[in-house]
Design goal:
Blueprint (H helix, E strand, L loop, with lengths): L7 H13 L7 E2 L4 H6 L4 E2 L3 E6 L5 H10 L6 E4 L4 H13 L3 H6 L4 H14 L5 E4 L4 H11 L5 E5 L11 H19 L2 E6 L23 H5 L2 E7 L12 E9 L5 E8 L4 E4 L4
Parallel strand pairs: 3-7, 3-8, 4-5, 4-6, 6-7
Antiparallel strand pairs: 1-2, 8-9, 9-10, 10-11
Length: 278
């Protein structure tokens, strides 16, 4: 075998040939949403830091969970927002198309109970591994990732939960983002970090997320390979007949163009669907 045969350039050419022949790219992790995958070049990439943000109530946690539920193998979901059992409740309610309230109260008819059982069976063996972040910061993410080495997709919900204190918030978030990017590379995983939008001005005419809304002194735009903003117009204009309509905006893509994907949100099930699925 010659040196050319094993060179990085040769590997890239070979990968392009496999893609041309219709073979899946082992470095790509499809989201399970055709519109999203089309907008981001086929899927999430190993080694990439993906930041997903949206206004309060937009459904960022639900969308990240939905992506893990469409995986053929378990992802790792680390939450600073809720108890792991509540994440599994949401997973079952969304998958079964049963209201979360009915599930928690046990107020289900026989049809809903059958759907719940079928959803639990469908998720067996591929449901995400869910763990709480507690107060461990970046070290907790690293330990959890080490404990689940087969997880190609890691979700951190959300990065504000990794802060040790409120002092120097922007600088601390910038360091967290850099650390998560390094972790994605070191672990060879796609890492989705959910973020709030502290700089979002809700009085402006167009309230679609922008890179500037993430704050952290621009660190999201610097360190993230892919930045996604979730926008649901019904949060602001509930009387315009736009219930459920959702845009996922590609605000930054290191190796591709910006754009958007159309989704639909069923609030009663906390469930996102791709418009192309219909």
């Amino acid at each position: 075998m010659t040196r050319l045969d094993i060179s990085p350039l040769a590997r890239v050419v070979a990968r392009a040939d496999r893609a041309r022949d219709g073979e899946p790219d082992a470095g790509l992790i499809p989201t399970g949403f055709p519109s999203i995958d089309r907008a981001i070049g086929g899927g999430l990439r190993r080694g990439d830091l993906i930041v997903l943000g949206g206004d309060a109530g937009a459904g960022t946690s639900s969308l990240a969970l939905a992506i893990t539920l469409r995986r053929p193998d378990p992802a790792l979901l680390l939450t600073a927002e809720m108890h792991p059992d509540r994440v599994y409740e949401r997973a079952l309610a969304s998958s079964a198309r049963v209201s979360l309230e009915s599930l928690r109260l046990g107020a289900m008819d026989e049809g809903d109970r059958v759907k719940l059982g079928a959803a639990a069976l469908s998720l067996r063996g591929r449901a995400p591994i869910v763990d709480g972040l507690g107060h461990g910061g970046i070290a907790a993410v690293s330990r959890a990732s080490s404990a689940s080495p087969s997880a190609a997709l890691v979700v951190v919900d959300g990065i504000e939960g990794l802060l040790d204190s409120a002092a120097g918030r922007d600088e601390a978030l910038a360091f967290i983002l850099l650390s998560l990017k390094r972790m994605a590379l070191d672990r060879d995983v796609a890492l989705i970090a959910i973020a709030h939008l502290p700089n979002l001005d809700r009085s402006r005419k167009d309230r679609r997320p922008t890179l500037a809304d993430f704050g952290a002194r621009g660190a999201v735009g610097v360190h993230a390979d892919l930045v996604l903003g979730l926008y649901r117009e019904e949060l602001y204009e509930s009387d315009l007949g736009v219930s459920g309509a959702t845009e996922l905006l590609v605000l930054k893509q290191r190796d591709g163009a910006v754009g958007y994907a159309d989704l639909y949100y069923y609030s009663q099930w906390l469930r996102f669907e791709d418009v192309l699925d219909g």
